[in-house]
Design brief:
The protein is about 15% helix and about 35% strand. The chain is of the alpha+beta class and about 80 residues long. The strands form 2 sheets. A 3-stranded antiparallel β-sheet has the order 1-2-3, with no helix packed on it. It has a 3-stranded antiparallel β-sheet with strand order 4-5-6. The longest helix has 9 residues. It is globular, with a radius of gyration of 12 Å.
């Protein structure tokens, strides 16, 4: 499984995710913002506070997390 090298949050609530296999993913978070789990990330300042943890999870402080497995699963759909 690929590992996350970096993440760049964009003003349109997308994420540019770089993986250690040199792939880049533009992940659109807008549909997820409608869910209870991610609704607090509608605030752009909170959304932009994302960081990579353990090379396999995106974390927004104590608000929520998104694993590489969840990201890949959404891409496969």
């Amino acid at each position: 499984m690929a590992r996350i090298v970096s993440v760049i949050p964009n003003d349109d609530h997308t994420l540019l995710i770089e993986l250690d296999n040199h792939h880049r993913i533009i992940y659109d978070m807008r549909p997820k913002l409608q869910t209870v789990r991610f609704s607090r990330l509608r605030n752009l300042a909170r959304f932009k506070a994302v960081r990579v943890e353990h090379a396999n999870t995106l974390v927004w402080n104590s608000i929520c997390r998104l694993t590489i497995d969840e990201i890949v699963d959404m891409l496969d759909r």
